[in-house]
Amino acid sequence: MTSSFYPPQRTLMGPGPSDVSPRVLGALSRPTIGHLDPQFIQLMDEIKGMLQYAFQTENELTLPVSAPGSAGMEACFVNLVSPGDKAIICANGVFGGRMKENVERCGGTAVMVDDAWGTAVSVDKVAAAFAEHPDAKLLAFVHAETSTGAVSDAAALCALAQQHNALTIVDCVTSLGGIPVEVDAWGADAVYSGTQKCLSCVPGLSPVTFSPRAVEAIRNRSHKVQSWFLDMQLVMGYWGGDSKRAYHHTAPVNALYALHESLVMLREEGLEAAFARHREHHNALVAGLEAMGLSMAVPADQRLPQLNAVNIPEGVDDTAVRAALLNDYDLEIGAGLGALAGKTWRIGLMGHACNRRNVLRCLDALESVLTAQGAAITAGVAAEAAAAA
Ligand SMILES: *Cc1c(COP(=O)(O)O)cnc(C)c1O
Q1: What is the three-class DSSP state of 163?
Q2: What per-residue confidence (pLDDT) applies to 73?
Q3: Closest residue (by CA) to atom 3 of ligand 1?
Q4: Tell me: the pLDDT tens digits for 119-166?
Q5: Distance 70 CA to ligand 1 centre (A)
Q6: Ligand 1: distance of its center to the CA of 185 in Å?
Q7: How far is CA 78 from CA 104, 128, 161, 384, in A?
Q8: CA of 236 to the centre of ligand 1 (A)
Q9: Is the CB of 68 under 6 A from ligand 1?
Q10: Smallest Cα–Cα separation from 196: which of 67, 299, 302?
Q11: Closest approach atom of ligand 1 to CA 174
Q12: Please, where in the chain does CATH 3.90.1150.10 lie?
């Protein structure tokens, strides 16, 4: 007979999921109640308020989609792209490519603005794309490219879209909770995130927020959204502001307890303190890695603190190093994706996992594993440099 599953205790320092706090895991195991129970509806309201805080927005339509980040992405596209629409899509990593897929599956045309993986989206190239395609209705880009570790200038890109009367879709899956996401200040129209990156909640939910402009565009659609589940007009009836909630689907009750707890923790710490913590440990990690002779893959002014792409040194066996970290140190780091497969490692410092102990543990484990592979590293230099930083 198959017995219960007990996962190993890992330290998650990859591209997500990140370590989940015991407080969040505890919330997950509280008794399930009905999803139309008045107490549950109060919980939904509190989640909405705390998501508005996290997104720095007053958008009424702010809620967690009951599915992972990819569903939040899809929710934004299927509601805002109609057949025949032209959308400017920025691709500087894996997720821009998925945005193109979404536009095309909605019957739209994607005008691609490509940038090298590991660099920010070029605002100038996007300006040129708008000049060439004044009929573009939408601009979509990834704020924090988890596949490469690069951050893009969301404020400048959203401002550009507004000048051209285009709506914006912004992927903030990895940015939310780790670096400033200022939905209202940017003037972003549809923004989606995920729970398993810097919110340090369990995977499987996707916080989204839509501006009044986006809601108007959704209400004025001339034909139905092709996805029933992700049709925001229907979801609004369930998560909407009025007290009368219409059944749409059964909310993942316990997962929402977990999200609520992770957002309470974010409020307790405060956004500014959370951002400062991510910066501080990122600086320490980078100092340690560089002291060990490793180099970062992304230019310093475009680096994400929560996702650190490191160049794999010549002659080092990528797979063997990651396997040794996992098997001997219970430490997960990420492999390179797509164009960067085999070239970089991705070390996450997300949410609850972003702490001093993990920085030191990671540097220490990498030092041992690389030394065993023949690298000449002076023992302890990395930890010393990290502590000094
Ligand atoms: C993780 C991630 C996604 C997808 O989220 P899932 O929860 O895996 O579906 C989308 N965009 C970015 C930038 C991500 O890092």
Answers
A1: helix
A2: 98
A3: 69
A4: 999 999 999 999 999 999 999 999 999 999 999 999 999 999 999 999
A5: 6
A6: 23
A7: 10, 26, 19, 50
A8: 23
A9: yes
A10: 67
A11: 15
A12: 271-388
